[in-house]
Amino acid sequence: MTLYTKSARVLILLSFICLVYPRLGLAQDTTKTVSQQKQIDEVHVLKKTEARATKEEPFNVNVIETKRYFNSTLDLNQLLTRTTGIRVREDGGLGSSFNFSLNGFSGKSLKFFLDGIPMDNFGSSLSLNNFPASMAERVEVYKGVVPISLGADALGGAINIITRSNANYMDASYSVGSFNTHKAGLNGAYTDTQTGLSFRFNGFYNYSDNNYKVNVEPIRDRVKLPEQEVERFHDGYSSLGGQVEFGVRDRTFADQLFIGLLAAQNDKDVQTGVTMEQVFGAMTRESTSIIPTVKYKKDNVFIQGLDFNLYGAYNMTRNGFVDTVGLTYNWLQETTPRSGGAEGSRTQLKQRDNEGLLSANLAYALHPDHSLALNYVLTDFHRKSSDVEQPNNVTLKMPQRLRKQILGLGLDSRFGPLRTNIFTKYYGLHAESFENVNVENTSNYIETSSSQNNLGYGVAGTYFFLPRLQAKASYEHTYRLPEPTELLGDGLFTIRNEKLKPEKSDNINLGGLYAFTVHKNHNVQAEANFIYRNSKDYIRLEQARNQPTNRKFINVGDVKTTGIEGEIRYSWKNLLYSSINLSYQNIIDKTEFIYTETLSGNLVTPNLNYGYKVPNIPYLFGNVDLGLRLQDLGGKGRVANIQYLLNFIEKYYLTPEQLGANNPDMIPRQFAHSVMADYAIAGGKYNIAVECHNLTDSRLFDNYRMQKPGRSFMLKIRYFIHN
Fold this sequence. Notes:
mainly beta; 22-stranded antiparallel β-barrel; five-stranded mixed beta sheet; 45 strands; about 5% helix; Beta-barrel_TonB; receptor; signal; membrane
């Protein structure tokens, strides 16, 4: 039986269940006779917030409400890294490359959305480290099972950024700080209630010299000098971007219809390779993205209970890498001539990435307690490359294409305090690339193509033992398709791997949430989750120790992850708030043998890391937040906030831990302290904030022991008006 036939049968069976399910008599009968009715003197209509409604879904989801951080200079990456199970690992300061990890899954295993729209291949200009916290109303963090409506091939979870929905407002801010860092943000909307015409915009600007001090052992004439403190001298970064949308709201033909444009660009000096040992002084990279968009949403389209929304975009991203200076730099900014006329390999590489994106959702309410959802997502990625320094490079003329299709069908049901969601997904992939076939020690590049089809499925449920005591459980068999950067490389530090296979995983999540109030003013919320992941063909970024500029995505094989995370929140009145969270993840390499292709056939060798932790991944980390809010100072709508933040990471190995306790390839235990304070007057119309990050000036590291900034200060002013 072909996979297509299996997929069709599963979809037909699920559709049949969806149609008869509500008629099985399991839903509670809320009808009452006249004699059972009681006289009601007063009625209070209460509506749940979007954040509360999302938390009550069957999925394991955290909701971060960003309003508290509107006066801060935090970007969304910095905000998210304070959430249980999340680590955002950066190579340096503002604008540096980063790796996002959630419950042990990292990189492209996680999917990012902007108002439910996939952000795949938006380019480095439109990434979370460029978006200010004030751009979002809230951020939804799904761990494990992802709702059908998002339509993603996410293996470990998804991040959905919900932009602000105010009908009429303007929010402008500017901040300046250490390392000549500048950040500006502008958000707003205008809606004419008579005509329904609406205009929305979001914009940002970021700049930094990133000239912070680092501790290194400079190399002179191939000899390492004693460790000393030096300044980063070639790490400048700037980014500018925004989104504008024009359309109508709340009309008979559309709840929302918007035509929009996303545009952004950035410029980045490249200071180091993958490790601190290799220093660059003239290499640069840049990226520009232009993305026209269309959004349409209509509830009760054609018939009552049938909701439809559609999103379309065409992404045009241009990436450039320049390396033409024939010098070798060290940390003392000393140079020596280098053959080849470049720091690495002479290049002026241009990549033209084009991607069409279509996402459609259809939801139908079969019954007040049962709804059916259908989602389809199509992405078609093409890349064309050129390099004036290598006009005859045959690899730049080879095809580079990746097309993905994801079709999902799900049923959401309620049975009193029990809510369930069952679903199935089809994953289709077609890739076109090339490979090097050596013939008599001569490179011979040939075109390759591959197609893969997979079927996933799962179930999620939540049960309310009490109105504020909730238990959750979910299971899924899922796939994650490789992304363009993983298959095709980035042209700079990451090389292609045309033989990369999709990841697949069986995931289990168990969790509970309990909230209670003591003496009206003391509010406590506790949440704990257990995770289990059994992954096959796990995709991981591999770094060759003897090649500090080259890394590649590989299939590790089998990886088993177990973990637990917990968080406790406490607030007193509306004055004092605090939280503490801790995450532990045990990620074990379960691949017994490593298969390597050679000219004479496959070479099979034992995996020396079998049964040990996968290296270069933090396994124990946590956060502490303490805040004090002083309201109505002077009785004129003045409010002050003071907040203390602590981030903790336990030490972990960069290389296999079985090398022994004296293994020098280790990132040490780290504590990062931050203090933030802001003051608002006129009901929040005028705001000023000051911040100090890495208060104790600790040495902080990430990835392959890349040193991060020391103590830094920021000052921010913000103006906010709304109607």
